[in-house]
């Protein structure tokens, strides 16, 4: 039975990074790069838009992908997702170093096979403990993404996990995350158990999986529908009835993530205009992606929090109920705070601004960690201008006093057009996020497969591929103690 403690690597996604796709572009949620099918000239020409006119497809795409960038850098869900990825890298680093320096075993890919043999021969030990942490992080990622099939396969084929309520895995992850953050220069409060009893947790999970079995949208639906309504920014002045394309009568299956939740929201938000609807809907999405998941704001969790209050999809359903009877947002400067405080108070949740204040008072960022630096800066912006990540006019009004700083932190590190590629004005920003994405891909592949060919996040000339190959090999040598000889970076086709 020991040999069955780990699933086959074929059951796991070798890349595990979401590419949020659209007809005219896509977003890489690890490198944070945006790739577009139109040229830079088309973008520049379309940028000169007329007020109160529908956006062109290039501008719709740019706003859509920009919301995905906000979701990663400015929401608790986004930073939690990234933290799970970083935790997995750290666990593999510790696993490799333990094999190499404690047991004298030279690691070679796929590490999962070496670990399978080692556990079979040695029983329970720290290798099994580290792998257990990696797999519950993977389980949580699949759960939050709504990938029920992969979630079920991993749970059924991995007795190492045990058949526990997801809330128990969340608590175990909290323990691993707390250790990881404290050991990597981001001190946080010590671990405390705070979830509701198992019966409540199991009921919450059954409700979620029941929804999923009916084809109900998941977290990806929350993310994509936020991007979709952003595309109607140029039509805010229209009445709901004059914008039928916002609620199409027929939705093709591949568009369900983009539109599915909007029909539920239409019944919940008492909006007369497109502007009232999209401002209120985007705000509900922001709240749904703002659960108090990291230890830094554990004090803001309700006593005996349930996974329903953490899962963005279930949070969205609760928000639809809370939004009924609440006057929608008509003008962000006047109504955003009132709207968020009203719906959150009904649910006894913290608002995004309250979580932002807690983050600023507790999160320390080590020098050079741009992911957490940018997340913390997002919270500072939110405290100063609570509605800033809803107000897409910032991209058409560059004269605002804070716009230069905002553009530095919240524009894509790399933007790829059909005819050219633009990098962040600060080269260290684009290098950092590209490097982090490559490290994630490489360490994951080291664990799961012999193939060490890594697809670069965007099309790049050979000289750039060579530069990052050398950089990645140096990073891996420092991080893991060795670098695979077969490592190769290739540009996407």
Largest sheet: 5 strands, mixed
Terminus-to-terminus distance: 43 Å
Radius of gyration: 23 Å
Strand order across the largest sheet: 1-2-3-4-5
- Tell me, briefly, the overall form: globular
Count every beta strand, where a strand is a DSSP E run of 2 or more residues: 7
Which structural class best describes the helix and strand composition? mainly alpha
Mean pLDDT: 87
As residue ranges, the low-confidence spans are: none
Q: What is the helical fraction, as a range of percent?
A: 40-55%
Report the total helices. Answer: 18
Write the H/E string, N to C. Answer: EEEHHHHHHHHHHHHHHHHEEHEHE
Strand coverage percent = under 5%
Written overview of the protein:
With 493 residues, the chain is mainly alpha-helical. Helices cover 55% and strands 5% of the residues. The strands form two sheets. A five-stranded mixed β-sheet has the order 1-2-3-4-5, covered by helices on one side. The chain has a two-stranded parallel ribbon with strand order 6-7. Helix 5 (126-145) runs antiparallel to helix 6, helix 5 (126-145) packs across helix 7 and helix 14 (352-362) crosses helix 15. The longest helix is centred in the N-terminal third of the chain and has 27 residues, at 76-102. It is globular and about 70 Å long. The chain starts with 18 loop residues before the first strand and ends with a strand. The mean pLDDT is 87.
